[in-house]
Amino acid sequence: MVLVESLVLCSSISGLTLAATETTSWPPYAPTDAAIFQLSSDSQFAFYLEETIGLANWGGANTAEVLRIATQIIPHDFESVYEAYYYMAEEVYAIAESIDPQRDPVSAREAYYHASTYYRGADFFLHGNQSDPRLISLWTQQLTAFNKANALLDIPGERFTVKAHSETVGDYEAIGIFYAAYPDKRRGPTPTILVGRGYDSSQEEGYHSQCRQILSRGINCVTYEGPGQPTVRRQQNIGFVADWWSAATPVVDYLTTRPDVDMSKLALAGMSFGGILAPVAASHDHRFSAVIAIEGFYSAQQAFEEQFPVEIVQLFNTSNVTAFDTAMTGIVANSTYPSNFRWIVGYGLWAFDTLSPFDWFTRLGNITMSPRVVQNLPMPVFVGKGQDDVGTEQEPEIAYEMLVTGRPNGKALTYYHHFNTSLGAGEHCSLGAESQLWQAIMGWLSGVWDGWTYANI
Ligand SMILES: *[C@@H]1O[C@H](CO)[C@@H](O)[C@H](O)[C@H]1NC(C)=O
Ligand SMILES: *[C@@H]1O[C@H](CO)[C@@H](O)[C@H](O)[C@H]1NC(C)=O
Ligand SMILES: *[C@@H]1O[C@H](CO)[C@@H](O)[C@H](O)[C@H]1NC(C)=O
Ligand SMILES: *[C@@H]1O[C@H](CO)[C@@H](O)[C@H](O)[C@H]1NC(C)=O
Ligand SMILES: *[C@@H]1O[C@H](CO)[C@@H](O)[C@H](O)[C@H]1NC(C)=O
Ligand SMILES: *[C@@H]1O[C@H](CO)[C@@H](O)[C@H](O)[C@H]1NC(C)=O
Asked: Residue limits of the Peptidase S9 prolyl oligopeptidase catalytic domain (predicted)?
């Protein structure tokens, strides 16, 4: 549709300026028929922009800053995402640095948090080239900004590391941040939610999207990362492992040493791919009184297979390593292919610390909520489903069915919640609608915890 627009009238009547536009035909004001208004015609960029703007709900961004970033992003152009986010990150960080935090800690804290988010955004689409030095420098910048913001909280989060051991990567350190709900540890044991991240997102992001919701109800929030997740991958050069309990269990051991944790009310949440990792961890550690899978998930390999071209899947199924690797590597490097496909593979290779797509996809298939995992889950499990989450296909339904039929008392122990597109909550992990997400989870968890009444902080 061609827009023919001309300014025909601009007159001043009693102090009011009226501008009228004559338009013979209007442009369509419908960016797509997507479930959520898209900020880019590139659906992967639109998704990431939505993830970022959602952080504005809880102090991780400002809406106009993200809307401005969106104007600078060119579909299919990964480098343009870097440039748009990096420009904003540097400028907002400079604002933060210009503030005297003694005089105005709130301004400084907010600007540092926003800058941290935008440094992560600058990084997000660069993983196709694992030697890109910006993968390290941007991460250092996001951590620095985040730590400066955190130090300005009333109750700063406490970073911790714990010794861990995986049968595939050997000794390593799992990392985490403990956010106490109350300043005074003498207040005693407090219910606690441990929040695990997924395939790509960081524990820093989790502070805004999950912990703020949790803390506001008087529950301690703990984030953690294991192998393959952003900071551990960079600092220790290790990719995802199938024995995920190796990361979660030492964190729980640490929590037992804290007088402000009520170990009888400890829940484990997993976001996205974490919807697999959380049940896997809990199947080996029954100290969790509840598991929350935000997107319920059986297998990421299965979900991806359903979206890959059939020729590619056939190469994988026939173990044609050379042809599979050549095809996938070519796709990652070729910007004519859909950005989501390129990103999933390019990011996955990095997160699994490999250069072989065949190796990545094989190991991805080894991380599942298998029947054995399900059998060993005696605790209540919450399964979330974002109605419009095309990325996870039917995984939440599959996960629910397995949890109901694959363990004793499964029906009573499993709760399924459908987050609706009509209410804006249908996106992957209900991004940007975390109030609805946590309202549902907390309502359920109160029942699991014998009718627990939440605080109002
Ligand atoms: C990857 O990044 C490195 C370091 O910047 C650069 O030397 C190399 O040419 C890049 N590789 C590709 C394929 O772009
Ligand atoms: C799958 O995971 C198990 C640990 O649970 C490990 O022993 C095995 O080596 C893994 N297999 C592959 C192909 O990664
Ligand atoms: C590949 O293998 C999986 C698992 O055996 C199977 O479900 C799928 O149908 C196969 N796909 C193709 C295209 O061969
Ligand atoms: C692997 O795939 C390529 C391309 O389709 C084909 O030419 C080759 O014969 C296959 N190799 C094997 C061992 O199947
Ligand atoms: C990129 O892929 C397109 C098909 O989508 C193909 O025509 C083109 O030759 C590829 N470019 C490179 C450099 O391989
Ligand atoms: C949400 O979706 C479910 C399943 O489609 C439906 O039963 C329910 O009525 C919807 N709720 C609202 C508030 O739209």
From this structure: 251-305
